[in-house]
Design brief:
alpha+beta, 2 domains, four-stranded antiparallel sheet, 46% helix, globular
């Protein structure tokens, strides 16, 4: 189903062949990554989700009108800002990790450490960016690293 926002792909709606069930997937248009998804036996909920997607509703509002919808954790980044795209994907991975049963949240810790390392590497790119891009990236980096950085085994961070 088409929509009114250029940063969203049309909503994908699938009907199952052997039972009364439908599924949806709503993607952002830059990389085709899922923003919302879900499955239900209630065709009326599919219609409500599709209408909300078409109207450009906020992702949380789509979930509100169609409770079967799951938010992937990714959020829309209309300007495709690289720092915000990375943050969106990190948020998705954190939500995904919350559903994985590993001892003592090891998966979530692994994701946080990998993203923190990525943020440190991103800081090296600041000199190559325009001032506006650098400011945007620096904001994301500073916020992330202030929340997540902790001293390593040698105490050097």
């Amino acid at each position: 189903m088409e929509n009114t926002l250029p940063d969203r792909n049309p909503l994908l709606v699938n009907a199952w062949a052997h039972e009364r069930r439908w599924s949806i997937r709503g993607e952002e248009s830059f990389q085709g990554m899922a923003l919302v998804e879900g499955r239900t036996e209630d065709l009326a909920q599919i219609a409500r989700a599709a209408q909300a997607w078409h109207d450009g509703a906020e992702l949380s509002d789509i979930q509100r009108v169609a409770p079967f919808v799951s938010l992937t954790g990714r959020f829309e980044v209309p300007d495709n800002d690289p720092g915000r795209l990375a943050e969106s994907e990190w948020q998705h991975l954190r939500i995904e990790a919350s559903g994985v049963e590993w001892p003592q949240d090891a998966y979530a810790v692994l994701i946080d450490e990998a993203f923190t390392d990525h943020m440190r590497n991103e800081r090296r790119l600041l000199d190559l960016l325009t001032p506006a891009e650098a400011e945007s990236l620096e904001t994301v980096l500073t916020t992330w690293l202030s929340r997540m950085e902790r001293p390593g085994p040698s105490g050097d961070g």
